[in-house]
Structures are given as structure tokens and as C-alpha cells.
Amino acid sequence: MTPLKYLQAYPPALQDKVRHLIAQQRLGEHLATRYPDRHDVQSDKALYAYVAALKQQHLKTAPGIDKVLYDSKLDVVQRALGLHTAIARVQGTRLKAKKEIRVASLFKAAAPEFLQMIVVHELAHLKETEHNKAFYQLCEYMQPDYHQREFDLRLYLTWRELPAPNDTDHRE
Q1: Helix, strand, or coil here: 12?
Q2: pLDDT digits over 102-149, tens only?
Q3: What is the distance, to the nearest Å, from the Cα of residue 15 to the centroid of all Cα atoms in its chain?
């Protein structure tokens, strides 16, 4: 049985369904049917505006964000699809923290739902630092189908790592 590293926490029956789609070379087709579009948030400036709009819509009282960018160094293998950081700096007698959100560059070519899922996840960390019940409730509040999108994103990552069956495959 082929291990599905992005789906290990899911029930074996669900993993078997994914393996079946892979064996039939239909996983990409399944994803393309569900997510036919690609977003147009291509620059760091556009990504900042996108994140700021989502934050304003759902988390008005959360701390501000100082920097948002696509990061080509985020490694999917290390499970970093996005990253939130608070960099503390001393300025005179005051301690200031700059909040940053980084999104893996591979999401420049992804479905808008996947970009939103990553951004929602990172924004939720502004209020909830741990991946606990409150964190996932906040994610669901910002994106009501969050858990389905997370699963589908894991399918997308699985598909990206499959060997391409022919040269016409467009995974990037």
C-alpha cells in the first residue's frame, strides 16, 4: 500500500478511495473538476491586500499585519504551507512586534479556495496560537467549508507529487 503522507491522519477507508483515484489516474481530473479556476493574486502587494481584506472582514480586532508575501523557501515537505511570525524588536525603551504572514509560492498557481484556506489558517493564528478546538472554530467561521478545503488541499499536494503520466500534465 502506498503511504499518503498528506493524508495519514484520515481514516483508512478514505485513504483507500484516494488510492483508487490515483490508480485510475483520475485524481488530477477530480481536482480540476472541483477547482477549475486559478486566482489572480500574483504579487506580494496583491497578496497583502487580499489578506488585509479577509482580516478586516473577519478579525477586525486582531493585531495588525505588517508584512505579507509569497515565500519560495517554504517547504511543503516540512508541512509549512504558510507561516505566521511575530518578530520582536527593541526600539528605545519599547518592545515592538511585527506580524508577518508568508505563503508558499506554489499557491500562486493554485485554486482561489486553496489560497483562501492557507490565509484563513494563518490569520486564525493571530488570535489562537495553538491548533486547538477554538482555532479550528475560528477557521470555520472565516471559511465555512474549511475542513473540506483542507482535505482537498491535501489531495492537491498528493497529486502534485505523483509522477506525471505524460508531458501534457500541468501541475505547476
Answers
A1: helix
A2: 898 889 999 999 999 999 999 998 898 889 999 999 999 999 999 999
A3: 20
